[in-house]
Amino acid sequence: MHKPHGLTPKQEAFAAAYVETGNASEAYRRAYPRSVRWKAETVHKRASELLADGDVMGRVEALRAEHRKRHRVTVDRLTNEAWEAIELAKREGQAGAYVSALQLIAKMHGLLVDKHAVKASVEHKGVTRLEVVLVDA
Fold first, then answer.
1. Are strands 116-124 and 127-136 parallel, antiparallel or unpaired?
2. Looking at 17, 41, 70, which one is the last position of a domain?
3. Are 86 and 103 part of one and the same domain?
4. Of 20, 29, 18, which Cα lies nearest the Cα of 52?
C-alpha cells in the first residue's frame, strides 16, 4: 500500500479532516466511517492516539503551514486586523467586541493561555485507588 507523506490513506484523511474541523473525534469519524457506530469514548481514544502519532501530527502541521501560506496568514497580519477591530469597537462603543479583540491579541502572543483540566483515576475491583487531576496552563 502506497503511503503518501508516510501515512496510510485513512491517516491522511484524518489529518486533513482534523485541519478542516479542529475536532479530532469528528475527523476520526470522517476518516474511519465504521466508527460512527462506536461509543464516543472509543472514538475519542482512537483519535487521541492518532494525534499522539508523530507522523500524523507532522502531517497536520504541514497541512496547517500550507494553509497559512496559501491564505497569507501571519501573526503580524492577524494582529493588525485585531487592532483594526479594536479601533472600530472603540468608535462604535462595543465593549464586548473590544475585549474579545484584546483577548485574541493576547492569545496570539502567548500572554493569555486557556487552561485545560484532565481527571484520571485508577480503579481496582471497583475501588478507586488513585485519582489525579492535571491542569496545564
1. antiparallel
2. 70
3. yes
4. 18
Whole-angstrom distance, CA of residue 43 vs CA of residue 57: 17
Cell of 53: 502519532
Contact 25, 40 (CB under 8 A): yes
Nine-digit cell string for 20: 478542516
Three-state DSSP class for 127? strand
Question: What does DSSP assign to residue 93?
Answer: T
Q: Is 132 helix (H, G, I), strand (E, B) or coil?
A: strand
Domain annotation covers residue 137? no
- Helix boundaries (H) for the chain: 9-21, 24-31, 40-52, 54-70, 75-92, 95-108
φ/ψ of residue 22, rounded to 5: 75, 10
Does 84 map to a domain? Answer: yes
Q: How far apart are CA 49 and CA 11, in angstroms?
A: 11
Cα 115 from Cα 38, distance rounded (Å) = 29
Query: Model pTM?
Result: 0.59
Report residue 137's pLDDT band, with 50, 70 and 90 as the boundaries.
very low
The per-residue pLDDT for 81 is 92
Average pLDDT over the chain reads 85
